[in-house]
Amino acid sequence: MKTIKLLFFTISLLFALSTKAQITKKNWLVGGSANFSSTTAKLTTNTGELESKATGFQIVPNVGYFFIDKLAVGTSVGFSFYNPSGDNNNSSGYSVSPFVRYYFLNSENRVNILTHLGYSFSHSKTENGFKSDSNGFLLSAGPVIYFNSSVGLELTLNYNTIDNNDTNYSNLFLGVGFQIHLKK
What we know:
mainly beta, elongated
């Protein structure tokens, strides 16, 4: 019985190591990411410099399609919640972000490197009724570790620039996401 279990484990391991990720033409990509951020913003006015800090959480599901091998085009919809420190005026919002994503290594690799470029439009509102619209760009890069041919864990370093009416700012943050690659 021990020999059968060992044989089954060995065959399963070899199969898992030999599977290919579905990053080829005509396949779908569905998944998402969750981000935690800590932001510090400095604003210089005629009366001096103001500093604001906030923490936030964001969930971003996405869907994409591989038009050619290793290149996916898609969109994501994000939902966010931010809590400024020293202030009870929390904000929540949503974003819509078309994206282009490229995988650098071949689909046979268990670990791949991705880069992701997206444009986003977001809308948020605070507890006191203030509403805000913004536009921005997101650049992400990092490794993808595939558990099998369909499921990958992404660990990304993200750089985000945001234009919010007369205020421009950028932030750098880490992200963790799962993607499921669906074969046609």
